[in-house]
Each structure stands twice: as structure tokens, then as C-alpha cells.
């Protein structure tokens, strides 16, 4: 496979090319380039960040929940503890001279959620940024599928040097349509389960929401990554 320049898209490039490059580079950084020869398990493991990625993803929330279990009325301590847990990962990456982007993104997310808890005084509001994320991501995947410009297709098309030619191939466009629908369904499923729980409230809503969020996180994300990886490689089997 020929090397593609890492620089920005040239002036005058179409919106589809710019989006394709952005999505494709994100997928490549996550280890999900279908042109690369690797096993499905290895691709999924890299996409979730391995053991470190899993820990970085779940530990701040676990710390938040445990803190509230031990000190139920101390939102400040729970927020500080969760933000500190996220900050440790960023500092470690910086000390090891690794790209801190993943941990830094997590730190920002945890910080925003924590600030909202401190502002409202409601521990359950820690989950509001997650609801917003699910709405935005779910809507983006759904709209891209409906209008015929699947986000998955744009990313894979860029990575496979296919541009947007996949849109003229009925098989490819159908596969990328359904992959985008599946990703939209994942985000809306999370929202559909968790948001009513938040609305209902209750004494144990924080612990219940936290548990459900963890269960609907990596355990649902990883299999869908595997399906996306396998399907994308299958439609370009002639290129490998």
C-alpha cells in the first residue's frame, strides 16, 4: 500500500475528502486500518488501548462511584478523586513521552462532568456529558448513513485509497450504510437505557447508572469494532 502524506488536505479539496482524511487518520491512529495485516483480536485490542486504555476508561468512574459509596454526601471528594485518577494517567503519559491525547481527552471529560456535579450539587449529573456525547455521535452516524455518506465509508475509503468510489459500488455502500446504522444504534441504545434512569432518579440512581454505563461501554464497543473491522476488510478483500 502506498504511503499517504500526513499533511492537511490541499486547498480546494472537497468536503468529503477532508472528512475522509480526518476519519481515516483517526481510525489509523486507533489501529483500525483495514489495509494492515493483523488479526481481528489485535486490531480490537489496540482500538480499546489495551490494558492501559481499559483502565484509563473505567477507573475515574469507578473511583467516583466508590467514593460516593463510602461518603454518600461528599460530592466534592468524589469529584476530586475521579479527576485526580484521570490526571494521573495524563501525567504518566507525559513522563513517558507518549502521546497524551487519549488520557487528556478523558481528563477533560471527567473534569467537565465533575464541574457540573459541583455546580448543580447532584451527583447523578456526572452522566449528563455522556448523554450529550451519545446524542452527537449517534446523530452523526445516523445522518451520514441516511444521506449516503457513511462515516465508516469515508474513513475506510481514505485508508484504502478508494476515496468516495465506494459510493458507486452497491455492495460497499450497503455494508458501510449498515455499519454506520449499527454505530448509531449503539449510541442511541446507551442513551435510551441510561437517560430514563437519570430522569427517574432515586436514592441509588448514581450507582445504578454507573454500573450500566460500565456494562454498556467497552463490552459493547469492542464487538462492534470487531464487526466493523471484519466487514471493512471483507469488502476490500481484493486489495489485500
UniProtKB/TrEMBL annotation:
The keyword DNA-binding does not apply. The chain crosses the membrane at residues 53-71, 77-95, 102-123, 135-159, 175-193, 205-231. The keyword Coiled coil does not apply. InterPro entries: UCP010219. Keywords: Membrane, Transmembrane, Transmembrane helix. This is DUF3159 domain-containing protein. It comes from Microbacterium nanhaiense.
